[in-house]
Amino acid sequence: MNLVQILEKSMQDHDHLCPRQILGARIGMAGMKALNFTEPPKRKELLIISETDGCFVDGVIAATGCTVGHRTLRVEDYGKVAATFVDTKTGKTIRVAPALDIRERAYRYAPNEPRHYFVQMQAYQTMPDEEMFTFIEIELVTSVEKIVSRPGVRVCCDICGEEIMNEREVKHEGLTLCRACSSPAYYQVSASEISYQIQQAFY
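Above: the chain's sequence. Below: its structure in token form.
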């Protein structure tokens, strides 16, 4: 697909097109090109780690075909418009991010547009990759094998009893724990729920 078709696909889940969708689509295309993919791979040959969620990711998905559901896309939310592309066969890994002064550079590609937002809308569709992005070859702290894991591997947490998939358990003092039980989680049980559980235990 060309950029126009990719952006049309990205807009299917939105009522509008925005600069971050365009950046996502362009970074998706640029990342694949940097790894010598001429089109979205049909098998799990490409893994993408996005550093933010939202419209940006929709652009990346439209360009690459990688999704959370297929376990070819992960989100590590650093609040950054950037993505890492991993060739799962060769192990080559490249992080693609916008040039630090991309907004200033954009004005050269939309000289007759005074509004910042629309400068980005226009320019991000036509700027050359080398003007828009930085490409850095990196090494993952966690191997691709551990990130992807193995299908069908399941254990239960020794504290909450809930099932853990994809080898995400933590071993601590001989116990098998889920990440919520082993360290501060993103949630906590409400006081009313704790009170209810105590009542159920005694009655």
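The two ends are 63 Å apart (CA to CA).
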